[in-house]
Amino acid sequence: MVEEIIISSPARLHFGIINPFRKDLRLYLGAGLAVNRPRVEIVVRKNRELSFRGPRSEEVWMKLRPLIEKYGLRKGEVEIRKTIPKHVGLGSTTQLLLSVAKGLLTVNNIFFDIEEVSSILGIGRVSGVGKYAFQYGGFIVDSGVKGKDSTKLYLRLRFPESWRFIVVIPEGRGLSEEEENRVFAADEDIPESLIHEASYHLFVEIIPSLIEEDIEGFSTGLEKLQLIVGKMFSRYQGGVFSKNSQIIVDVLKKLGVKGVGQSSWGPAVYGVIPPGENAEEVKTRVSRIVNGDVLIVDPDNQGAIMVG
């Protein structure tokens, strides 16, 4: 039995959901990218009793109870060292829960399947980007759902290492899990034409541009996708982007940043930094204008890393 393991998992940028509301069609189908910062870092040690400590430890304990009962987990000391900021659009809860689950199951010498664990924890019912970013890293497209199935992996591509992103996290927060569930349960009759447009931008512009390493085509397609997805959610976030996100989107576009969008519910906003452009200079210019955390991040093509 393993005595101690360390797990580090990446944040993810969520680029959008193709069909959030039309239940007569395949629902959801999301796309996004694992990025190297910020990260979750946890340590799980062999222990006679089950214990949790560190930031969000009580929340993690409560949300892991179905998994604990399912596998009879009674041993293991969980230390949460680092977390991704919560409710800012970077997938913090999914990464944290999957990291702790993987650590506990590993120190208890229990073989597990990521799909089964995600299902027990309620992860991936709407978007599978987070769970596959954890598992594989890279650029992810999930299958969406038809009926009551959970999302499956549709496509995973290695993202060019030289394409970087600026990520700005302003004040405010996105929706909680409970608020999000109420939105997706709503009977929102969006035009089918918007779903077709979103599909076109993802499958005809973004993915081929990524395969061809055409950063301009990728960035242009991403901005178009964001505008369509934002229209679908405008009723729930006060516009194409949330209020705090819109301010950052405007700043980045004014500075000439391409591929600008809101990650999930925001308020985190991202933009593409092409090879050859001085990322730190862009960061400095943005930091002088906006209030909030400004990060330069790289694609993460590995997913969660376990040592021990």
Sheet having the most strands: 7 strands, mixed
In helices, the fraction of residues equals 25-40%
The CATH class label is Alpha Beta
Number of strands: 11
Give the oligomeric state of the chains in this entry, treating copies of one chain as homo and distinct chains as hetero. Answer: single chain
| Computed Rg | 19 Å
Contiguous uncertain segments of 5+ residues: none
| Distinct helical segment count | 9
Mean pLDDT over the full residue set: 95
* Beta-strand content: 25-35%
In the CATH hierarchy, the third-tier topology is known as Ribosomal Protein S5, domain 2
Q: What is the annotated CATH architecture?
A: 2-Layer Sandwich
From the helix content, strand content and strand pairing, which structural class follows? alpha+beta
Shape: globular
Count of the domains: 1
Helix and strand element order: EEEHEHHHEEEHHHHEEHEE
